[in-house]
């Protein structure tokens, strides 16, 4: 054990396993650890550092705003907050009637969405429909929306009214009625292993929720900010939801979340009905506005689509018998494995200096910065091919070429 491992084992809460390395510095798609090892980061802090590490735009925005104004309170508005709200409304197509609530994380954005659903539903509509295998966060409300029994069990009872359905149009048709306040879905279930919704699901959910007077809330926390090769996951489907939740990539590494509402859903929160001391502070909103400006100016949504297609081709071209499918869109990719060895593949990759993660035992998740280019892809190919070969060599006879 090194000193930092001792410190981490003693001082950090035991909600996560042993830390893999002590990361001391980042630049672009690379991280360096305390032993001076360089890592190619194809996880981006789980779809967070959209511009890569220490991007000049990010650094300038943090420095400039920290030197100007970092926090007031929600008694006041600030220019960065208004600029970001207007930008998010424009990018998300929320129109003049749209509104933005700022939080500090994804789970908090979903807490706000949960309360939005309750405000809409009142006592007449106690039901909220979410999806099996869905993940929406770890706070009590967002955990109630999250399906995974093992995550929920120690914390029961959950806030009531949430039902989890299989992700099929038929299941939604069968379950929805006029007592449903909201349907909440991820366009691609990231934590479940980068699993896309079935073709036409969002369109069907839109028409069913309209028919029954329920809100359609899309959790874009992992899929938003250009990651899937469109600004948002729902943009691929051409629908207009009632609300979306955002976090992760919009801040590019600065903690921030948001709930964007559309149309009538924008009138549900009234003074005093919700709030957060830090939510919408000028520092976080200035950084997110700068990150989104850079994503727009540098064409990074288009880059995510193009590099995502190249990455997919690379993965299929590796020809490893361990790879059975490549799921996802843009730069949110799940590599489905023939054996439940995602943990081993991730460890082998880490040994070779490549960071990816195991979304579940059968799936390696890849979510690099939206800025990646030829050099990063070429290095990824080399390292990931080697990592797969390492694991395959340790599985004699199990998976043959
Ligand atoms: C789809 C989705 N919703 C919500 C969350 C929770 O976000 P946070 O970890 O910022 O609370 C996550 C995080 O992984 C997520 O992927």
Automatic annotation (TrEMBL):
EC number from the UniProt entry: 2.6.1.11
Localization, UniProt: Cytoplasm
Gene Ontology cellular-component annotations: cytoplasm
UniProt-listed PROSITE patterns: AA_TRANSFER_CLASS_3 (PS00600)
Enzyme class: transferase
GO molecular function: identical protein binding; N2-acetyl-L-ornithine:2-oxoglutarate 5-aminotransferase activity; pyridoxal phosphate binding
Pathway: Amino-acid biosynthesis; L-arginine biosynthesis; N(2)-acetyl-L-ornithine from L-glutamate: step 4/4
Cofactor: binding details: Binds 1 pyridoxal phosphate per subunit.
Family matches, as Pfam families: Aminotran_3
Principal place of residence: cytoplasm
NCBIfam families in UniProt: argD, PRK01278.1, PRK03244.1
Family the entry assigns: Belongs to the class-III pyridoxal-phosphate-dependent aminotransferase family. ArgD subfamily.
HAMAP family given in the database record: ArgD_aminotrans_3
Protein name: Acetylornithine aminotransferase
